[in-house]
Amino acid sequence: MAPPDATQRNSLPGAKPVKGVFSTDAQHFLGRHFSGRVSQRIFVYAEEQEDGRIAVWRLSRNFIPSGNKRLLHKEKLLSEYLPEPAIYINKVVPLMRRLDDTVAAADKHRERKELFAAEFEYKNALVLDADHVKATFGLGLTYLERQEKQNADIVFRKIMRIEAAFTPEHKHLFNDFGMQMRKLGMYDEAMRYYARAYRLCHTDEHLLYNIARTQYEKGRMKSARTMLTHALRLNAEFSEGKAFMVYLESRLRGDETTDLPPE
């Protein structure tokens, strides 16, 4: 019997998921959109997903996976890409570990309210990966906590350009960022931001709650109630949402009201 080929080996029971650096020529990576005549080698970081497809990110000049991921079938990866284990072990792994450690250190500084140290570490991370989602959000939150609206607005505009920021895995980050913008009175920016997030995630009651709070702050109580109703349909036991709805209904009736419920 002939030994299994590369595709079969990776399909065998107990085979490890694909993870590492691969290379291919630009024609394979960019497809028909590539019109260059000179051969160009492209390096990518590949990681197998739960559904068996392979997510690939192009490596930056700093050997960091960057940009939006592309999904490939495993057969395509193994037939059109060459493994580059030396680059993965000697370049990518150490740099990704350094990047993760730098962001973790920045997060700890921000939690301790050591905001200038946090800014320094987030910027160090962004030198390695200019579009790193957690570092970008962290830097923005640092500016918001220091009430530096102008710097926060620069980060806000950058976040709006990063497609990877608006994914379910980062929803707690964009909720926190939008909430802090709202608390600083950046209502228009917060609504633009929430609108972008909402297009990509309709099923997060916290996002809908934050939209409702922003609409309320802008004086749009009926719009706030509509969004809050959606949030409570998703989670009828959402305590902050229920308390805010009681408050809103009371305001809309013109009743004497208590203070706005805390978040």
Tell me about this structure.
With 263 residues, the protein is of the alpha+beta class. The protein has helices spanning 6-9, 26-30, 74-80, 85-111, 115-128, 133-145, 149-161, 171-183, 187-200, 205-217, 221-234, 239-253; strands spanning 19-25, 41-48, 54-59, 65-72, 82-83. The protein has a 5-stranded antiparallel beta sheet with strand order 4-3-2-1-5. Helix 8 packs parallel to helix 10 (205-217). The N and C termini lie far apart (66 Å). The model is unreliable at 1-13 (pLDDT under 50).
List keywords for this structure.
alpha+beta; 263 residues; 58% helix
Strand arrangement within the widest β-sheet reads 4-3-2-1-5
The secondary structure category is: alpha+beta
- Give the total of beta strands: 5
**What is the C-alpha radius of gyration, as a whole number of Å?**
23 Å
Number of helices: 12
Give the terminus-to-terminus CA distance.
66 Å
What low-confidence regions span 5 or more consecutive residues with pLDDT below 50? Answer: 1-13
Helix residue percentage: 55-70%
Order of helices and strands: HEHEEEHEHHHHHHHHH
* Overall pLDDT level: 87
Give the DSSP E fraction (strand runs of 2 or more residues): 5-15%
Main sheet overview: 5 strands, antiparallel
